[in-house]
Write a structure and sequence with these properties.
Shape: extended
Largest sheet: 8 strands, parallel
Number of strands: 8
Radius of gyration: 48 Å
C-alpha cells in the first residue's frame, strides 16, 4: 500500500461516524440514464481518493486485528467521556414565562453598586444674572430662587379677581424727579444725604425690600420723572431696571395714562382717539421692559369719539399689553358709566384710584368708596398720607416735622386746627403698641412647644403706620410714595396688624372734630 496514513484516516473516520461511509452508486459522474446500473443490482463502485490509492477492499481485508483495535479504542473513549445534560429550550408559554421570571430575579439580586467608587456632589451656587427685556424666564426646577412672603390679607374679600397682597402698594411719583430729590450718578455727598437726596441705587434697594416682603403692588406713570426720559431715568425706566435686576420677584405693576393736556404742555405731543391710548401703553411697556398688570386712564377730557377711552382700553386688553384696566379720579357716576361701557366690550373695570387719607376723607363721605365696593371696583388711595400731613408728624410744637432744612410746609393755623387729631393719634399709637405686645406674648406662649416660628410683626408702630392702616380699615389700598430705604421699612412695618373698630372710630371722631374746628 502506497499511502498507509491516508488509508488509516479514512478508516478512523468511518469507525467514528454513526453512518460510516456507506457505498452508493455514482450516477452523477457523467453517466447517462441509459447507461446507469440497475438499482436492484448491488453496485461495486466505491469512493476513490485518487487513482493511485489501492482499492479499499484490499485495505479492509489486510489486517482485521487493526480494525478491531481501533473500534475497541473508540468504545473506551465514549465510556470515559462524561455526559452533559443539555437543557431543553422552553416550548410552551408557561415555560417561557417561568424562565423570564428566573432571569429577572437573578438580575434584581445582583448588586452592581459594590464595584462603583464613592463620590459626592454639590449643588452649584447660583449667580444672579440679568434677564433680557421682554424675555424673562423662570426656572421652575429651582424652588430656592422663588421669593415667598406672608400675605396677611390672603383671606380678604376682594372686590374682583385681582388680588393685591397685603392690601398695600407703593408709588413711584418721586422716581427720576430732580425737584423731589433724585440725583443722577452713583454717589452722594454727606450734605446731600442729610437733605434727603437719593440715587437710582437707593430706589433699587427700596424696591427689593418691598417686593421681597409682600408689597408687590406698584403704581407708576409715564408722567413720573418725565424730564429724564431721554436719559432713560424716568420712573418707568428705573422701575424696569429694578424689575430686571430682581428677576425672582413678581411685582404687580400698574401704569397710568398721563393727563393728555399736561402731556401736551410737557412737549409730548397731542394724543387723541383709541390709537393714542394704545400707543401710550406700548411706549410704557417698552420703558418698563414688560407688560403691565393694570392700566388706568384719568378722568380728564380726552379728544376723540365718545367711546375712545373704553375702545382703547379694550384694545389694550386684546393686544395683551395689560391684564386689567381701571380709572383714576373718577366720581361714582362717571365710574359706573365707564363700567357699563367696558361690560359691553366683554371686559370689566377693575380699579378706581383717588385721593383719600385720614385728613382728606371726601371719598368716604361722598360714598365713592361704597360705590366702588358695590360696583366690584378696587378703591385705591394714591395720597394716603396727604403729603405727610396725615402722619400727624407736623404739630404746633414741631412745624417742620423733624425734617432737615427747617422748612414749615404747613401754616400754624392749620396745625392748630388739626391738633385734636394729633392728640388722638398719639393715644391710638400707644394703645396699638400695648395690644400688639400682648398679642405677641400670647402667640409665643401658644407656640412655645412648636417648631414653627410665628411671623415677626412690627410692634413699635408709628403714626405714619397708623395712618396707612386707617386707609386699609376703610376698604382702600394705600399706595404711599417710596424713595428711600427708611420709607420702605416704614411701609413694611404696617403689615401683619390692623386697627380695631374702636380705634378707627376714635380717629374718625377726632378728624370730624378737627374739620369742624372743635376741640376734644
Amino acid at each position: 500500500m502506497k499511502y498507509p496514513a491516508l488509508a488509516a484516516a479514512v478508516l478512523i473516520a468511518s469507525a467514528l461516524s454513526a453512518d460510516a461511509f456507506v457505498p452508493s452508486p455514482l450516477t452523477s459522474l457523467g453517466t447517462s440514464a441509459a447507461s446507469a446500473p440497475d438499482a436492484s443490482v448491488p453496485s461495486s463502485t466505491y469512493l476513490h481518493m485518487s487513482d493511485e490509492d489501492d482499492d479499499l477492499d484490499d485495505l479492509f481485508g489486510e489486517d482485521d486485528d487493526a480494525l478491531s483495535a481501533l473500534i475497541g479504542k473508540r468504545d473506551r473513549i465514549y465510556k470515559s467521556t462524561p455526559k452533559v445534560d443539555t437543557p431543553k429550550p422552553p416550548s410552551t408559554d408557561e415555560e417561557i414565562d417561568a424562565k423570564l421570571d428566573e432571569i429577572e430575579t437573578k438580575v434584581a439580586d445582583f448588586d452592581y453598586t459594590d464595584d462603583l467608587p464613592d463620590f459626592t456632589s454639590k449643588r452649584p451656587v447660583r449667580t444672579p444674572k440679568k434677564v433680557e427685556k421682554k424675555k424673562k424666564e423662570k426656572d421652575d426646577s429651582a424652588p430656592d430662587d422663588e421669593i415667598s412672603f406672608f400675605d396677611y390679607q390672603s383671606d380678604y374679600d376682594d372686590e374682583n379677581d385681582f388680588h393685591i397682597p397685603n392690601r398695600m402698594g407703593f408709588g413711584t411719583g418721586a422716581w427720576g424727579e430732580p425737584k423731589l430729590g433724585f440725583k443722577e450718578g452713583k454717589k452722594l455727598k454727606k450734605k446731600e444725604i442729610k437733605t434727603g437726596r437719593y440715587l437710582a441705587g437707593d430706589l433699587q434697594i427700596s424696591y427689593n425690600s418691598l417686593v421681597e416682603n409682600g408689597v408687590t403692588f406698584i403704581d407708576t406713570s409715564e408722567s413720573h420723572g418725565r424730564s429724564l426720559t431721554k436719559k432713560n431715568l424716568s420712573a418707568e425706566h428705573i422701575l424696569g431696571q429694578c424689575y430686571e435686576e430682581n428677576a425672582q420677584a413678581e411685582p404687580l405693576i400698574t401704569s397710568t395714562f398721563a393727563n393728555p393736556w399736561l402731556h401736551l404742555l410737557d412737549g409730548g405731543g397731542l394724543r387723541y382717539g383709541r390709537r393714542g391710548l394704545v400707543k401710550a401703553l406700548e411706549d410704557s411697556c417698552d420703558r418698563l421692559g414688560a407688560g403691565v398688570e393694570l392700566y388706568q386712564v384719568p378722568a380728564a377730557l380726552y379728544l376723540g369719539f365718545p367711546n375712545a377711552l373704553p375702545d382703547g382700553l379694550s384694545q389694550c386688553l386684546d393686544k395683551g399689553l395689560c391684564n386689567y384696566v381701571g380709572v383714576t379720579n373718577m366720581g361714582a357716576l362717571r365710574m359706573k358709566s365707564m363700567a357699563r361701557k367696558m361690560d359691553k366690550r366683554g371686559a370689566s373695570l377693575t380699579s378706581n384710584s383717588f385721593a383719600f387719607s385720614l385728613t382728606n376723607r371726601k371719598a368716604w363721605k361722598s360714598g365713592l368708596i361704597k360705590a366702588c365696593k358695590d360696583q366690584g371696583v378696587i378703591p385705591i388711595a394714591h395720597t394716603p398720607l396727604d403729603g405727610g400731613f396725615a402722619t400727624c408728624a407736623y404739630t404746633m410744637t414741631n412745624p417742620s416735622g423733624g425734617r432737615p432744612g427747617g422748612k414749615f410746609p404747613y401754616a400754624q393755623k392749620k396745625l392748630e386746627k388739626w391738633q385734636p387729631l394729633t392728640s388722638t393719634m398719639e393715644a391710638v399709637q400707644s394703645r396699638v403698641k400695648t395690644r400688639l405686645e400682648k398679642e405677641g406674648r400670647e402667640q409665643q406662649q401658644m407656640m412655645k412647644d412648636s417648631r414653627a416660628q410665628p411671623p415677626q410683626i412690627n410692634k413699635d408702630v408709628t403714626t405714619t403706620q397708623i395712618a396707612l392702616n386707617y386707609v386699609i380699615a376703610k376698604g382702600c389700598v394705600p399706595i404711599p410714595g417710596v424713595k428711600t430705604v427708611a420709607q420702605a421699612e416704614e411701609v413694611l412695618g404696617c403689615l401683619g396688624w390692623g386697627l380695631t373698630d374702636e380705634e378707627v372710630r376714635m380717629l374718625d371722631s377726632a378728624a370730624d372734630a378737627a374739620e369742624k374746628g372743635l376741640s376734644i
